[in-house]
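Hi P.,

Sorry for the delay on this. The queue was packed all week, but I finally got your sequence through. Input first:
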Amino acid sequence: MAADYEPLGGEPSNTGQFLLEVDGVEIGRFSRVSGLELEVAVEEYVEGGQNAYAHQFPGAMRWPHLTFSRGLVKSDALFEWVQRSSGEGFASNDNKLTRSTGAVTAVDRSGNRLRAWQLDGVFPVKWTGPSFDVDSEEGLSETLEVAHNGFRAKTT
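Then the structure:
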């Protein structure tokens, strides 16, 4: 099998966690990440006299927000990052958003990094904490949503 077609880790990928890092600082490990996608808008141009088709050209790229989910952890790294980029941290920076670089890395069950997606202009936009219900068997969890200006995939 050619190296380009070899599954990450030598076998079909089965990750244990997803690591989020911002400006080189580990924000946390998550059990689920969604929204890692892109869409290219298509601009059409109809040429006079050409009735068989319309020319199609790539337009703007769209990058949806990423959503990270996990059980609650002891670390405060996530909230420290949120505070630096919003609220009082935002105000103390003359209301200027400091966009960061980030990375989402798929990590296998042995702790090996398989593939990373390097994020441009990342900042947190939403955090959802656990719902408290004494009658529920569900564990306490949190969800983080981040905006970004695109990503590049990189095999680690």
